[in-house]
Amino acid sequence: MILIPIKDFFETKTRIRAAFPADSSRLIENLVKVTYLQTIETINSLSYPFGVISPSMSIINQSRDLGAVFTYCDSGIDLNIALLEAVQKLPPDQPILVIMPDLPFINQEFLQRLSNEINTVDVLIIPSISSDDSFGTAVLYLKHQSLLSFQFGSNSSRQFRAEADQKNLKYRILHLDPYARDLDTFVDIQYLRQHLSLVSDPNPFIEILRNLELTTSL
Fold first, then answer.
1. What Rg, from alpha-carbon coordinates, does the chain have?
2. What is the DSSP string of 77-142?
3. Model confidence pLDDT, tens digit, residues 38-90
4. pTM
5. Nearby residues of 30 by Cβ (< 8 Å), 6 or more positions away
6. What is the dihedral of CA 193, 8, 19, 189, to 10 degrees?
């Protein structure tokens, strides 16, 4: 099952918000929302089952309307705690594919490739690509939910690899550009604006990015 953890839209992207005027907050919220919804649309286009983990009941309810077969409302305190609590509600042998909600370049080709790759490994790690070089993780597949501890955040892709090595798990690391490019910094938004042709449906992004450009020298 694909799992998408997401904060309430108004609580996301603090570093990006700091780079824009205060009155740009709604635009940034919309950017996150559009990215998240496009991810769900792509998943639905392939009829893959998905679940959503969020502290926002509004997002939970919307996700159910969009076809989520599993939802979990967490406390919003910590992503890794939220994931651990959520997967405990699933069958213990449930394979999971955790996808971060801020990956605007995800498309059908990417998800189909993942579907093929996970058939040959216990663990699949896709490091995030961001201008801050934090070595985070964009996507994590676990053949069984308890194979690795959740440790998303800075340096997480290296930590996942180290634990997989320690446990002698069969794993693969894929560096997939642009699919693993996230939206964490001002430079990431610049990249998105310059590469909209790589987005499966750029139209929802165009007006948001145009309005952000009007507020600063994007």
1. 17
2. S-HHHHHHHHHTTS-TT--EEEE-S--TT--HHHHHHHHHHGGG-SEEEEE-B-TT----EEEEEE
3. 999 999 999 999 999 999 999 999 999 999 999 999 999 999 999 999 999 99
4. 0.94
5. 9, 208
6. -10
